[in-house]
Design goal:
By secondary structure, this protein is mainly α. The protein has 15 helices and five strands.
Length: 392
C-alpha cells in the first residue's frame, strides 16, 4: 500500500477511536424483546407493594394515599373537559385547554392508582371515562408551548393507560386511545427540542418512552433512549465532562460564551449543577423528575439506564436539596437562587437509598420532611405513594 494510503488508513482509525470515546455507544436496539406491563414508571410489583402498605395503614403510604384521594384528581364526580385543539402559548398564555388537559390526565392516573389499590371498579370506570373523552375529541396541540404541553399531558396519560389496560378487565376503546397517542401526541415530541432549556426535551423523552411502551413500538423506544442519553449529560454537570458542560447535539451551542449564557450565566461548574439551576430550582426539578421517571421505566423494561446516568442524577439531587436548606455561596448564581424544587425527589432517592443502600443525607432529610409529596399539577404526581421506600 502506498504511504499516503497507509496514512489515510491510520488517520481513519484514530478518528474512529476518538468518536468511540467521545460518544457513548448506543445499542442498535435498546427496546426489550418483550415489553413489561404495566411498565411506565410503576410496575405491578411496585403497585402490589403500595397496595399492601396502604391497606396495612403503614406510613408514609397511608397519608400519601389519603392526600391523593382527597385531591381534586380523585373525585368520582369529575367531568372531563376535552378539546379538539389545545392551544398553549408561552407560560400557557393563551390557555385554551392547557390546564384542563394536564389535570384530566393527572386525574386519569390518580383514579387508575386508586382502582389498583382499592380494587373498586368505580375508579377504573372513571379513569376510562376521562381517557375516552379525550381520545374521542383531541386532534392537535398548537402555539409555542405545544411540545411541552403535549409532553406533560402524555407523561400522565401513559401511566394511567398502562395500569388500566393491563390490570382492569375491560377497556373497549384502548385501541382508539393508542391511536390518539400515536397521531396527536407523538409527532410533537418524538424528535426532541435540542435548543430549548433542558427540562423540555427531558419531559418530551419521558413521554415518548411511555408512549413507546404502551404502543409496544420498539423504534420509538430506541429513539427516545438515544436522545435521552445525550440530553442528560447536557443537563447535569460532572467534573469528568471537562472545564465546560456538554451541550445538546444539534443545538448550535458550542462556544464558552454561548455555554455560559445557556447555563443562565453560571460560569463556575461543579458536580450536580444543572443547566437550569440559575434559572430556578422549579424548572430544574422538572428535568430531574423526567430523568428519574425515564430511568425507572427502562429498569422495569429490563434495560436499566440508572448505572449510566446515576452519578448525574444522584449528585443533582444532593446539590439542589442542599441549597433548598442552606444559603448559596457567592459563586452560585451570583449568590441568589430561586428555590422551589417541587415534589420530584422520591423516585431517584428510592433507587439510590432503598435499592442500593447509598447514603444521601441532604436528599433524604429534605424529602422526608416534605412527605407526603403530592402533585405539581403539570406532570408529577404522588411520588411518595408510589416510590417511598419501595424495594420493588
Amino acid at each position: 500500500m502506498p504511504a499516503s494510503g497507509r496514512r489515510l488508513g491510520l488517520l481513519s482509525g484514530v478518528l474512529t477511536l476518538l468518536i468511540a470515546f467521545a460518544v457513548p455507544a448506543v445499542p442498535a436496539s435498546a427496546a426489550p424483546a418483550v415489553f413489561t406491563h404495566p411498565g411506565v414508571m410503576v410496575s405491578r410489583a411496585q403497585l402490589d407493594f403500595v397496595r399492601g402498605r396502604v391497606n396495612a395503614n403503614a406510613q408514609p403510604w397511608r397519608n400519601a394515599y389519603n392526600q391523593m384521594a382527597g385531591s381534586q384528581y380523585g373525585s368520582l364526580s369529575r367531568t372531563p373537559r376535552p378539546r379538539a385543539v389545545v392551544e398553549c402559548g408561552p407560560y400557557s398564555n393563551p390557555n385554551l385547554g392547557c390546564t384542563d388537559e394536564r389535570q384530566d390526565a393527572i386525574a386519569a392516573y390518580t383514579l387508575a392508582l386508586m382502582w389498583y389499590i382499592t380494587q373498586n371498579s368505580q375508579y377504573a370506570t372513571k379513569s376510562i371515562q376521562i381517557m375516552d373523552a379525550w381520545s374521542n375529541t383531541i386532534r392537535d396541540h398548537t402555539n409555542s408551548n405545544a411540545p411541552l404541553q403535549t409532553a406533560w399531558s402524555a407523561a400522565s396519560w401513559t401511566k394511567a393507560a398502562e395500569i388500566i389496560k393491563h390490570t382492569y378487565s375491560s377497556w373497549p376503546n384502548s385501541g382508539r386511545f393508542g391511536t390518539m397517542l400515536r397521531n396527536v401526541y407523538l409527532p410533537e415530541i418524538v424528535n426532541g427540542r435540542a435548543n430549548t432549556n433542558g427540562n423540555w426535551e427531558l419531559t418530551m423523552m419521558e413521554a415518548s418512552l411511555g408512549i413507546a411502551v404502551f404502543l409496544e413500538d420498539r423504534a420509538v423506544y430506541d429513539k427516545a433512549v438515544g436522545i435521552f442519553r445525550t440530553r442528560v449529560p447536557a443537563f447535569i454537570y460532572l467534573p469528568s465532562d471537562g472545564a465546560l458542560p456538554k451541550t445538546p447535539p444539534g443545538s448550535g451551542i458550542d462556544t464558552r460564551t454561548e455555554i455560559i449564557s445557556y447555563w443562565h450565566n453560571q460560569s463556575t461548574f461543579v458536580e450536580g449543577l444543572s443547566q437550569e439551576t440559575c434559572r430556578d430550582f422549579t424548572h430544574t426539578g422538572y428535568g430531574i423528575a423526567s430523568i428519574a421517571a425515564f430511568a425507572e421505566t427502562t429498569r422495569i423494561q429490563g434495560q436499566d439506564l440508572y448505572p449510566e446516568i446515576g452519578d448525574r442524577l444522584r449528585t443533582a439531587l444532593g446539590f439542589h436539596t442542599r441549597y433548598e436548606r442552606e444559603g448559596p455561596p457567592s459563586w452560585l448564581c451570583g449568590g441568589a437562587i430561586k428555590r422551589g424544587l417541587g415534589p420530584v425527589t422520591e423516585v431517584g432517592m428510592n433507587h439510590f437509598v432503598t435499592r442500593q443502600g447509598i447514603t444521601m443525607p441532604n436528599t433524604q432529610a429534605w424529602t422526608e420532611a416534605g412527605r407526603p409529596h403530592g402533585s405539581n399539577n403539570l406532570f408529577v404526581a404522588w411520588y411518595t405513594l408510589t416510590h417511598a421506600n419501595n424495594p420493588s
